[in-house]
Amino acid sequence: MSVVVATPAATPIILEGREGFFGRLSDRFWRNPGLLLLLMLTPPLLWLGVVYVGSLFALLLQSFFSIDEFSGLVRYEFTLKTYRELLQPANLDIIVRTVAMAAVVTLASAVVAFPIAYYAARYARGAWKALFYLGVMLPLWSSYLVKVYAWKLILAKEGILNWIFAKLHLTWLLEAWLSLPIVGGNSLSISYTGTFIVFVYVWMPFMILPLQAALERVPVNLVEASTDLGATPGQTFRKVIFPLALPGLVAGSIFTFSLTLGDYIIPQIIGTSRLFIGQAVYAHQGTAGNIPLAAAFTVVPMVVMGLYLWMAKRMGAFDAL
Amino acid sequence: MRSDRRARAPLGLKLAAAGGLMFLHLPILLIFVYAFTTEEKSYQWPPPDLTLRWFAVTWNRPDVWQALGLSVRVALVSTAMALVLGTLCAAAVSRSRFFGREAISLLIILPIALPGIITGISLRSAFSIAEIPFSTWTIVLGHATFCIVIVYNNAVARFRRTSGSLIEASMDLGADGFQTFRHVILPNIGTALLAGGMLAFALSFDEVIVTTFTAGQQQTLPIWMLEELVRPRQRPVTNVVAMVVVLVTLLPILAAFYLTRDGDHTAGAGK
């Protein structure tokens, strides 16, 4: 049998260049992938790298200026005076209060989020699984202000929570709690307890998702091996499941911690009149006009989050994101 | 993690999970009840009576319509900008390895990793240094900055699941780069972009922390709500607006979920 070999001369191995503007452009990109990359990256980098990071640096720079006590104007020369002002007891109080609140909120979110994430990862299947996912996603994405507003309704003196306590004849319990130092206050909506509940409510969904993802990645055979070797469910949980899910927990805590640290609306609407970092920043840049001190205050969450992220990275939390 | 199918959840776990989910959802449902209450001076529970009157009152409020209009305009423009910039970044980062690639993904995540107040105050001081007056565009600038990451995340996840061989096949069959983009890449990443765009819209529509710094005297709907929260003047109207906001943000989230739900398979890798 004879095989007819197609003459190679008829079809050139290298095609000719394309015609027209777009054809030539396309060829150009193909030969020169770096050019395409450069063109693709320039607009977003101009935006984020120049506009955004530029303004961040401009803000940081302002924290090294100071305000003139007599004229109230910003003096544009390098000084650490503003940072000395930041370390005054009144301002240190604000920092400690905010970091403590962020820590407590993070712990509480972990405790409330864990059962949801655990159930969703280990037991929920099919339609239930989708329902659980939506059940977390909807509150996470629904309006932040509406959520805060809902709690204003709930915690109001004439609101539903006081009504429930009254119906259950437990008003004395609520009053006993409110008469405690620090956590108490005149009513729930003007106490740290109220602020704390709203913070947990608003940021907790951010804890559930990474935690659930980490729990889903725990290999079943390790759990089975632990059971086969005679561990009780409690031991399996403590020695096998929890350590393997820890990176997810840390990843979630990055969100709850960072979001609490920078928030200034929740403590303004529900809480005492004592300031949090966000409120201090807002007050100093607004009415007081002390931009250098406001800038120095924003450095605090940046430094705290920097330390936090560094520790989280060491614990392997970024692989769990 | 999957344990065997016969495994039953302990009762305590079920109760804790159900309790946690109720804690997340009941407060939002409460908003719906309050929108119908006849009480206008306080947040009284239970509502003394139910009425539809406040919907009509809200409908006739020009300030609410104005705020809503501004919010929708800002959200649309920021979403469009975020779609372009986020997709460009995602395409560049997922197609090639280059020096500084890690730094770029960090840069994109920065606007949501840093507390919103930092983004807000730094943009505001940058505006005042550059002497840019507040306008719709200053709000858009702030919003687009943190919407990019939402689009980027969705697009990068889809690019990772789109097989490179599809693009190579298209090129081998003689399509030029633009045809490949239009007929191969875009259909593959389209739903991811739509989902990312919807989430970006929801995020921008709802944003208040950065907006308070970049809006000046303008009122978006969240800023209108914030003022009502700080100094309640028209509780019934606020109740209705809150309910509408819940519904408006709910739809894009459900749509985004629907669009990205069965994403475990890689297009073009099966055969």
Structural class of chain A: mainly alpha
Taking pLDDT < 50 over at least 5 consecutive residues as the criterion, the unreliable ranges of chain A are none
Largest sheet of chain A: 2 strands, antiparallel
Gyration radius of chain B (Cα, Å) is: 23 Å
Task: For the largest sheet of chain A, list the strands in their spatial order.
Answer: 1-2
| Name of the CATH class of chain B | Mainly Alpha
Secondary structure layout plus pairing:
The complex is a heterodimer of chains A (321) and B (271).
Chain A: H1 20-31, H2 33-62, E1 66-67, E2 74-75, H3 81-86, H4 89-122, H5 126-141, H6 144-155, H7 160-167, H8 171-178, H9 192-216, H10 220-228, H11 233-262, H12 266-269, H13 277-285, H14 291-314
Antiparallel strand pairs in A: 1-2
Chain B: H1 11-34, H2 53-59, H3 62-95, H4 101-113, H5 116-130, H6 136-161, H7 164-172, H8 177-206, H9 209-214, H10 221-230, H11 235-260
Helix pairs in contact in B: 1-11, 2-11, 3-6, 3-8, 3-10, 4-6, 6-8, 7-8, 8-11
Structure commentary:
The complex is a heterodimer of chains A (321) and B (271). Chain A is mostly helical and 321 residues long. Chain A has 14 helices and 2 strands, in the order H-H-E-E-H-H-H-H-H-H-H-H-H-H-H-H. Chain A has a two-stranded antiparallel ribbon. In chain A, strand 1 (66-67) and strand 2 (74-75) form a beta hairpin. In chain A, helix 2 crosses helix 14, helix 9 (192-216) crosses helix 11 and helix 10 packs across helix 11. By secondary structure, chain B is an all-alpha fold. The model of chain B is unreliable at 1-6 and 264-271 (pLDDT under 50). Chain B has helices spanning 11-34, 53-59, 62-95, 101-113, 116-130, 136-161, 164-172, 177-206, 209-214, 221-230, 235-260. The two termini of chain B are 28 Å apart. Chain B has one domain (65-260): MetI-like (MetI-like fold). Chain B has 11 helices and no strands. Chains A and B meet through helix 1, helix 2, helix 4, helix 5 and helix 6 of A and helix 1, helix 3, helix 4, helix 5 and helix 6 of B.
